[in-house]
Each structure stands twice: as structure tokens, then as C-alpha cells.
Design a protein that fits this description.
The complex is a heterodimer of chains A (148) and B (283). Chain A folds into 2 domains: 73 residues, Beta-grasp domain (Ubiquitin-like (UB roll)), CATH 3.10.20.30; 63 residues, DNA polymerase, domain 1 (Orthogonal Bundle). In chain A, 28% of the residues lie in helices and 13% in strands. In chain A, helix 2 packs across helix 5. Chain A is globular. Chain B has 3 domains: 51 residues, Uridine Diphospho-n-acetylenolpyruvylglucosamine Reductase, domain 2 (2-Layer Sandwich); 112 residues, Uridine Diphospho-n-acetylenolpyruvylglucosamine Reductase, domain 3 (2-Layer Sandwich); 95 residues, Enolase-like, domain 1, CATH 3.30.390.50. In chain B, the strands form 4 sheets. Chain B has a 5-stranded antiparallel sheet. In chain B, strands 11-12-13-14 form a 4-stranded antiparallel sheet, with helices on both faces. In chain B, strands 1-3-2 form a 3-stranded parallel sheet, covered by helices on one side. In chain B, helix 11 crosses helix 12. Classes of the chains: A alpha+beta (148), B alpha+beta (283). At the A-B interface, strand 4 of A face helix 3 and helix 7 of B.
């Protein structure tokens, strides 16, 4: 299987029906992508394929062939990551990588309505979502962020 | 490698023609589209299929176009593509509404309308829409092309008129005359399979279809006739009870579904019938 992972051309020898989730975690040792329900309900395993959020537990390796896959490891000091830390968007952390990637797909400054629709496929049992929405609202491009 | 896939094979055709040949040679290989349902069963180890036929790479099965008011939707068209399509927004707003209520964005980016039809669940969100729009299923096999009216497509619970060597290639959906209406009732707004789902087309000759109230999606021709002939909503609701056969299951109860189906019928008719505010405004 050949694909672009976090901007890097990657080749890995896996069963074509292997879940992208297992390819990432077991073969490529990128464990930032979490397994929650394993049935497409919780969104903990959300990654971006060609910029769109998908559940990596429901994607066979064959369907990521030639695609651009972004995992949480592919974000480097993204404003959303800082905002989640600063504004309580992450508590236990299991949903966080998926939440952040689903939020990345919304682009900068999404409306509250866009956030609710865009994160509808991601479950969080800690924050009650308000802290997550607040974190996304507060996320600002890095150069505008005040140094602490 | 998880135990669930070790002994399974994936056939990867390069073209539709190639896919039809493989379908003919290995009819037991299960067609694989967006995997949003099949992989749930695969992950749980409850899927009997030993082999799969990969359709995802066949771009010939994608795309939406319209000719003489009939929208042709490729089987691999995702819910996201349906939501974003100006053609679907203009001709079939109820299909946009249905697609928005499938899972969440992650599911909408992968799940396909062809998969929804092939999966043949009585709870499939787009199925009542296809039933009221009088859609036609385009099936291909090495033997040729066949068009089957959607309302004849399902022969029973999770069974269809498609032959073992046939593939769903597209849906042909005529633009309905009359106001389109869609409602899904589930446990929550996103990520919930329906307890009950309805699509309707209003006007003097209303068309109504329900999901999750019978072994297959159902049109309600007798109920439609009651409303078309000027019957009261109460008469229509009574008639409707003979045309649905809901059961108690993990998501709801038969009694709840009967009550909510009656409420939805009332709501549909208030919104779209001749007595609706829209009709009164001289639409």
C-alpha cells in the first residue's frame, strides 16, 4: 500500500482489507489515532483523507491507496491544539485527536452551527462539548497568538 | 492483523466491465463501496462473506446529472456529494435532507447511495425518498442492463430483485411534482439509526413512504388515496395503520412507531396538503 501520510510518501505491506486504523497504529506506530467504538459511532479514530474527516476504523487499507492521509501527528503546533489545551477542550484526551482533525476540516473561524454539524460524528464524555466549541472559537492563527 | 480479515480476499477490478466479469465469476464476493456498514459487521466478526469486490475505485459509478427532469445518481455517490450537489438541491431537496441525517460527517464522506440501497435495511435513510420519487434502479451484469422500479426492488427483509451477478450502477430519480418533505426520528440528531423515517411529496396526489415500520421500506398507496380523495387526516391515519407493520426491536417499540407514524403523517399533511399555509398562499 502506497499513500501520502502526513505529507510523507509512505509504503507499507499490509492486507488490503486491514483497517486504516490498524495500519496507522500497529504497522506505522502512530498511536495518536484512537480506537473508541470500532463501529463508526464515536469518531475517536477520525483522520483526514484528502482533507475530509473519515473514521479510520471503517476504511480498508485498499481505499487509502494513493490518498493523502493526515493524522494528529501530522499537525505541528496547530492553533487548534494550543486552544484545546488552553481552554479545556481536552480532558481525558481519547476523543481529542479526532475532535481536532474534524475541527481542522471546518477551516478557520467556523460558526457555532458549522461546529455542531462538523463535530456531530465525534463523541466526548468529559467536556459536554461547550469547552470544545470554545476552544475552536478561541483558536487563532499562530502569528496572532499572544506569547505567554 | 485482526482475525476477522486474515482469511478474506479482496478482488480489485480496474473498470466496470472488469467488475461485472468478476461479479459473474465470483458472485459470493460481496461488493464493497464506502464500507460504513460492512466494516461494522466485519469489525464485530459477524460478516459471513469470505471475499469482497472493491468498487470504490470505479469512477464510472460516480457522478450526478439530470436529463429531462430525471436525476441520474451514480451508485458510488457519497452523502457529502449529494449534500453539495446543486442538481440534487434543486430537484430533490428531500434527498439532501435525508443525506444530512446519515451518521455524521465522517460517515457522509464515505457512505454511498448505492450502498444504502444494496444494504437493503428497512431503516435506510435515503430509501423512503427513492420510494416516493418513484426512482428506478439501474442494474448491470455481463448479460446487460436492467431497469427495476425502486418500489419493486425489495422482495422481503434485506432481500432484493437484483440477481447474484448484478451490480447497482445508478439510481434514476424523477423530479416529483409537489412539495418534498422528509423527517427522521432517532435517539439523537446525528449518529443514530432511525426509529422511524418518512419521505413525502405533497399536493393533490400525495405520495408517502416510511422506513423502519415494516420488513422493507413501504409506500402507502391506500393512505395516499384517502388523502387524495379529500378524506380527513384521522381517516388517513387509520388507513395507514393497516399499511405498516412495525415491530419491537433494539431501537424502539411497535406501539411507539405506530403513534409517531400517525403524528408524522399529520405533520406532513399540514405542511404540504391543500390546506397547508403554503397552498393557501396560492402556490
Amino acid at each position: 500500500m502506497r499513500f501520502t501520510l502526513n505529507g510523507k510518501r509512505t509504503r507499507v505491506d499490509v492486507h488490503p482489507l486491514a483497517r486504516l486504523l490498524d495500519v496507522l497504529r500497529e504497522e506505522l506506530h502512530l498511536t495518536g489515532t484512537k480506537e473508541g467504538c470500532g463501529e463508526g459511532e464515536c469518531g475517536a479514530c477520525t483522520v483526514l483523507i484528502d482533507g475530509h474527516p473519515v473514521n479510520a476504523c471503517l476504511v480498508p487499507a485498499a481505499h487509502a491507496e494513493g490518498a493523502e492521509v493526515t493524522t494528529i501527528e501530522g499537525l505541528r503546533a496547530h492553533p487548534l491544539q494550543h486552544a484545546f489545551v488552553e481552554h479545556g477542550g481536552a480532558q481525558c484526551g481519547i476523543c481529542t485527536p479526532g475532535m481536532i482533525l474534524a475541527a481542522v476540516a471546518l477551516g478557520p473561524k467556523p460558526s457555532r452551527k458549522a461546529m455542531q454539524a462538523g463535530l456531530a460524528g465525534n463523541l466526548c464524555r468529559c467536556t459536554g462539548y461547550s469547552a470544545i466549541y470554545r476552544s475552536i472559537e478561541k483558536a487563532r492563527p499562530a502569528r496572532k497568538r499572544k506569547r505567554r | 492483523m485482526p482475525v476477522t480479515i486474515r482469511h478474506r480476499a479482496l478482488l480489485s477490478p480496474r473498470s466496470l466491465k472488469d467488475a461485472l466479469r468478476l461479479r459473474h465469476e465470483e458472485p459470493d464476493a460481496m461488493p464493497l463501496a464506502g464500507c460504513t456498514d460492512i466494516y461494522v459487521a466485519l469489525n464485530f466478526g459477524t460478516l459471513p462473506a469470505r471475499g469482497f469486490l472493491n468498487l470504490w475505485t470505479l469512477d464510472a459509478l460516480r457522478g450526478i446529472d439530470v436529463l429531462d427532469g430525471v436525476v441520474r445518481i451514480g451508485a458510488l455517490t457519497t452523502y457529502t456529494a449529494l449534500i453539495q450537489s446543486p442538481i440534487v438541491a434543486r430537484h430533490l431537496p428531500m434527498l439532501v435532507a435525508a443525506s444530512r441525517e446519515v451518521g455524521g460527517p465522517q460517515i457522509q464522506h464515505r457512505g454511498t447511495i448505492g450502498g444504502n440501497v444494496a444494504n437493503a435495511s428497512p431503516a435506510g435513510d435515503t430509501l423512503p425518498v427513492l420510494a416516493v420519487a418513484q426512482a428506478v434502479v439501474e442494474l448491470h451484469s455481463v448479460r446487460g442492463l436492467r431497469l427495476v422500479p425502486f418500489t419493486d426492488f425489495y422482495t422481503g427483509y434485506r432481500t432484493s430483485a437484483a440477481a447474484p451477478d448484478e451490480l447497482i450502477v445508478a439510481l434514476h430519480v424523477p423530479t416529483p411534482q409537489g412539495r418534498q418533505w422528509f423527517r427522521k426520528v432517532g435517539t439523537r440528531a446525528a449518529q443514530a439509526i432511525s426509529k422511524i423515517v418518512i419521505a413525502g411529496v405533497g399536493g393533490r396526489q400525495p405520495r408517502i413512504a416510511f422506513g423502519s415500520v415494516a420488513p422493507t421500506v413501504v409506500r402507502l398507496p391506500q393512505t395516499e388515496r384517502v388523502l387524495a380523495s379529500g378524506g380527513t387526516i384521522l381517516e388517513a391515519q387509520q388507513q395507514m395503520q393497516s399499511e405498516i407493520s412495525p415491530i419491537d426491536d433494539v431501537r424502539s417499540t411497535a406501539a411507539y412507531r405506530r403513534q409517531v407514524a400517525a403524528n408524522l403523517l399529520d405533520e406532513f399533511w399540514r405542511a404540504t396538503g391543500p390546506g397547508s399555509a403554503r397552498a393557501a398562499r396560492g402556490r
